[in-house]
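in:
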């Protein structure tokens, strides 16, 4: 069991959604987001998120060295 972190996160999300102020929907344009700075920011944020996710997955599912050597059937032996 990983501990109380998943339950705490679910509780915080539920409280945030329950007590978020409801704003009326708007259909008017609020501006443009296709300038070079906005595109660069979107690319940078997406790259950082993908890199962080990849590193987290790599650390979480890393095999031990003994297991990796036992299952490694490389052609250079």
């Amino acid at each position: 069991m990983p501990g109380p972190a998943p339950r705490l996160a679910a509780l915080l999300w539920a409280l945030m959604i329950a007590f978020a102020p409801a704003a009326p929907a708007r259909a008017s344009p609020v501006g443009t987001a296709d300038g070079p700075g906005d595109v660069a920011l979107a690319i940078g944020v997406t790259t950082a998120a993908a890199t962080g996710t990849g590193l987290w997955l790599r650390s979480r599912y890393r095999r031990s060295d003994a297991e990796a050597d036992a299952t490694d059937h490389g052609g250079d032996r």
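note: The chain is about 60% helix and 0% strand.
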